[in-house]
Specification:
- By secondary structure, the protein is of the alpha/beta class.
- Helices cover 46% and strands 15% of the residues.
- It has 10 helices and 9 strands.
- A 6-stranded parallel beta sheet has the order 5-4-3-2-1-9, sandwiched between helices. Strands 6-7-8 form a 3-stranded parallel beta sheet.
- Helix 2 runs parallel beside helix 10 and helix 3 packs parallel to helix 4.
- The model has no long low-confidence stretch (mean pLDDT 97).
């Protein structure tokens, strides 16, 4: 788990991807890799999510590939069997989280309240997704929640814009951010992979500058 978190922290931003067509998976992965951001969270919001994960994992096994919007144990199994390295969920479903822990799956479950955090702590988890970040109060909320839970580190996701990355990643209790702005579904469906690559490159360069400060 620690090694995976270190990799996510090094990338700084995890592209959150909704793929509606399996054939877009490889061009998308290539765009992210070319842009210097070889990681992605493929969300289980579409029927082809597992197939997309499998396609990318087979072609680019070194890419850090996660599965997002994992709501059930069955989805967790499908994601890992398809080749996902880690799982992400929007909320804290204790049944699914316990199952994933017992199976040895790496999981970053979502939290939004102190009660969610305490459930996570009771299961030995210390790396959590804060979702929906902006709608739930953004950085002020993160600061408030991190104060009594110093051992917890967060991956805020949801509504974060490119120009907010410096402020979020500058927080010591944030190890990475999730960002759907890097590869919107509309750009993927339109085949704008050059645009996605350019955005990924800009974000990767920005993360390097932030970390160099």
């Amino acid at each position: 788990m620690e090694k995976m978190i270190q990799s996510l922290e090094a990338y700084g931003v995890v592209p959150v991807i909704q793929i509606n067509r399996t054939e877009d998976a490889i061009p998308l992965a290539e765009a992210l890799i070319e842009g210097g951001l070889p990681c992605a969270e493929i969300t289980f919001r579409t029927p082809c999510a597992a197939a997309a994960i499998e396609a990318i994992a087979k072609r680019y096994p070194d890419m850090l590939l996660g599965a997002g919007t994992v709501l059930t144990a069955e989805q967790a199994d499908r994601a890992i069997n398809a080749g996902a390295s880690f799982l992400v969920s929007p909320g804290f479903n204790e049944t699914t989280v316990r199952y994933s822990i017992e199976k040895g799956y790496k999981m970053v479950p979502g939290v939004c309240t102190p009660s969610d955090i305490e459930k996570a702590l009771s299961l030995g988890l210390s790396y959590l997704k804060f979702f929906p970040a902006e709608a739930a109060g953004g950085i002020p909320m993160l600061r408030a929640m991190s104060a009594p839970y110093g051992a917890i580190r967060f991956m805020p996701t949801g509504g974060i814009k490119e120009n907010q990355l410096s402020e979020y990643l500058g927080l010591p209790f944030v190890f990475a951010c999730g960002g759907s702005f890097i590869a919107p579904a509309s750009d993927i469906e339109a085949g704008h992979f050059d645009k996605i690559s350019q955005t990924a490159r800009r974000v990767a360069d920005a993360v390097k500058e932030i970390k160099a400060k």
